[in-house]
Structures are given as structure tokens and as C-alpha cells.
Design goal:
Structural class: alpha+beta
Radius of gyration: 37 Å
Distance between the termini: 94 Å
Number of strands: 8
Order of helices and strands: HEEEEHHHHHHEEEEHHHH
Largest sheet: 4 strands, antiparallel
Strand order of the largest sheet: 1-2-3-4
Strand content: 5-15%
Length: 380
């Protein structure tokens, strides 16, 4: 099949991925005696055959990438089945030997019954369906762990935005009892004698000594050691030291109050996660499309009158088992798509929050306004 060459072009080592999302399915069916392919007697090939080729993707562990230990990889396969001489051929192109080892193990001496014999056409047809299942199962097996990695890594770099306090108290809470201003004494009254002034001064000192201290009036200030930065940090009013502690996110720096400091690069990291999540959804949808096309093609063969009668009589159970397995794979992929869509919504919300937290904060906040109002009242 010339289309198989198109599936081989995206394979190989590249600096920039090209045609990476070009999953396709192709098929040629030539079962009739009038429209058969080229016979090759020396290879026991009658020319009455059907051929399929397709490509699927999955994620595999990468030992080279330490910070990002997952890599999306794919393979291309071509399968031909000759119904005249009961011959099958398989061509699988992949960057490692994972599929080769699985197919070899499945067709060894201790293989399951569906792989045990190619001597009859119905058993060869059932074995072909089982071989397709080996490669389809590979396309779904690691997505759960890869999405777990995306979720954990994303929370690690963005959870600081959730725990960041919007307002950090710059000083102990002011109370009206301490800072309430009374009427000022008119010191310009010249009728008051020096003796009365001294008496008034002694009385003021005595009253001052009888007044409670600032520490007695103010509620005790609560502090905690921030576990993420190791700095002593004043707690906002109403928050006690018994509040649950938050684990330290990695890759963040902290200000003098123990609050995480976000930079523009954190938005870039979140954008990378968003792109990875979108790529995951696209690959899963492409895999689902290919799996459906494979099932529909083999189901259409049973509607073809040129297909040998013995396959129609002996292989319906194998076909039903194949369809059930593929539906299970598709259902699993659909559930992973729902997970990634939920992660994308979380990424969008968290990216908005990080962009707000990373903005430069004004020099004077609420405490600055209160201090300014106090100074203004003292000058009146």
C-alpha cells in the first residue's frame, strides 16, 4: 500500500515534530476474482486479499528526560491477509521493541488459543484480530499515569497562588481605645500660673501610670513560622496558629512575609501544561477515531459476499469479542479525555489567579491608609 509510506514519514528523530498528529487509517479490499491484486505464485500469494495500515500513539517512560519523564510516541503498522492461500503479513515500525516483544510472546509455544494456529483460514482470521488488539491495548495503557503526572506537576507549581494571602498585616491591629485623640490643652492661656501647671503635670503623670499599657489593651499578635520559607510571619486577624500547614511548593521564592513570589515564567510554565493537556486530548481523540475505523472495516467484511463462507460461519464470536474489547478501550480513552478537560478548566482558572498574584503590588495598602489618616488627624 503506498499510503503506508505516508504513515512512516512522521517517524524518526526530529528537532521539531512535523506531521505528528497525522493519525490515519487506510484499507484496500480485493476479494473478488474479477478485481483481485497481483498474484505472486512464488510467495504463495493469490492476490485475493485485504490490506489495512494505520498509526496509533501512546505515552511511554523516557529515561533521558529527567524533569519530564514521559514522551508521546507512535507506531505505524501494515497488515495484509490473503484469503486464497491463507497467508498473512505484518509490518510494524516503532522506535523500540515493545510491540515486537509482545507479539512474539503472544505467538510463542505457550500462546493463547486464538494465536495457536494459522493452518486454517478461520483461525488465521481470529489470530489477526487478536494481533490488532495487542497494538490497540498499547495505545491506551499509560495515559492514566501520564495524566496523573500532569495533575501533580501542575499543582506543584501553582498551589502557591491559592495559599497566598491577599493582605498581610503590616503592624498590630489599631484600636480606638489606644489611638482615640482627646481635645488638646490650650497652652497659650497666660492666666494659668506656673504652680497650677506643675500640679496639672503631676496629675497627668499619675493618671498615665494608672492607665493600662498598650500590650494590655491590644490583643496578642499571632505569629507562625511559614513552613515554605522558614520566616516568622504575622497572621491575619482571626487566624490561629493551629491552622493546617501547607506543604512547600517547589520552584518558588518567597518575600519577607513568607508569601510565594510569582514571576512571568510561572505563567509560561502553566501555558506549557495547557498545551500538553490540549495535545493529550487531540491524541486520544485521534486514537478513538482510528479504533472505530478498524472495527467498522472488519464489520464491513462480514457484509461482503466475497469473503470466504467459512470465515462468516466460524468467526462471528471472534468478531464480537474484538468489538467488545475495542469498545472498552474507547470507553477508557473517553474517561481520560474528561479528566484532561477538567484539568484544562483548572489550568485556565489558576492561570488567571497567578497572573493577578504576579502583578506588582501597590506600595501602600490598608495599613498605609490608616497611618496616613492618623497623621492627618494629629495635625488638625
Amino acid at each position: 500500500m503506498p499510503e503506508f509510506v505516508d504513515l512512516l514519514l512522521p517517524l524518526g528523530e526530529r528537532n521539531v515534530a512535523q506531521d505528528f498528529f497525522s493519525n490515519c487509517f487506510y484499507q484496500h479490499t480485493r476479494l473478488s476474482n474479477d478485481a483481485h491484486g497481483l498474484p505472486v505464485p512464488g510467495r504463495a500469494w493469490s492476490g485475493r486479499d485485504f490490506q489495512v495500515c494505520y498509526s496509533l500513539k501512546s505515552v511511554e517512560r523516557s529515561e533521558v528526560q529527567t524533569e519530564w519523564p514521559w514522551s508521546i510516541r507512535h507506531y505505524a503498522t501494515h497488515h495484509a491477509f490473503d484469503v486464497g492461500h491463507v497467508r498473512t503479513t505484518w509490518t510494524v515500525v516503532k522506535g523500540n521493541r515493545v510491540l515486537e516483544e509482545r507479539i512474539t510472546s503472544a505467538t510463542s509455544g505457550r500462546a493463547p488459543p486464538e494465536f495457536s494456529s494459522y493452518k486454517t483460514i478461520e483461525k488465521a482470521f481470529a489470530a489477526a484480530l487478536s494481533t490488532h488488539l495487542i497494538m490497540i491495548d498499547w495505545s491506551v495503557e499509560n495515559w492514566r499515569w501520564y495524566i496523573n503526572f500532569l495533575e501533580d506537576k501542575f499543582r506543584e507549581i501553582s498551589e502557591g497562588a491559592i495559599s497566598t494571602d491577599a493582605d498581610i498585616p503590616m503592624s498590630p491591629k489599631e484600636t480606638e481605645d489606644v489611638f482615640a485623640l482627646g481635645p488638646r490643652t490650650n497652652t497659650q492661656n497666660t492666666n494659668q500660673t506656673r504652680k497650677s501647671r506643675a500640679f496639672s503635670f503631676r496629675s497627668a503623670i499619675q493618671k498615665t501610670n494608672n492607665m493600662p499599657s498598650v500590650a494590655e489593651v491590644l490583643p496578642p499578635q499571632q505569629f507562625q513560622i511559614n513552613p515554605r520559607s522558614g520566616k516568622k510571619q504575622p497572621l491575619p486577624p482571626g487566624i490561629s496558629t493551629a491552622s493546617p500547614q501547607v506543604s512547600k511548593p517547589q520552584g518558588l521564592h518567597y518575600d519577607i512575609y513568607g508569601q510565594p513570589m510569582f514571576r512571568f515564567r510561572h505563567l509560561q510554565d502553566i501555558q506549557d501544561f495547557e498545551e500538553s493537556a490540549n495535545d493529550t486530548i487531540l491524541v486520544l481523540k485521534l486514537n478513538i477515531s482510528i479504533c472505530k475505523q478498524i472495527t467498522e472495516f472488519y464489520r464491513s467484511l462480514f457484509d461482503n459476499k466475497e469473503l470466504p463462507k467459512i470465515i462468516l460461519d466460524e468467526c462471528p464470536e471472534s468478531m464480537l469479542r474484538f468489538e467488545r474489547r475495542v469498545k472498552g478501550v474507547i470507553s477508557h480513552m473517553d474517561s481520560q479525555i474528561l479528566r484532561v478537560e477538567g484539568l484544562l478548566r483548572l489550568i485556565a482558572d489558576r492561570k488567571t489567579l497567578v497572573s493577578q498574584v504576579s502583578r506588582p503590588k501597590p506600595l501602600f495598602g490598608g495599613a498605609g491608609h490608616r497611618s496616613g489618616a492618623l497623621c492627618q488627624s494629629m495635625l488638625m
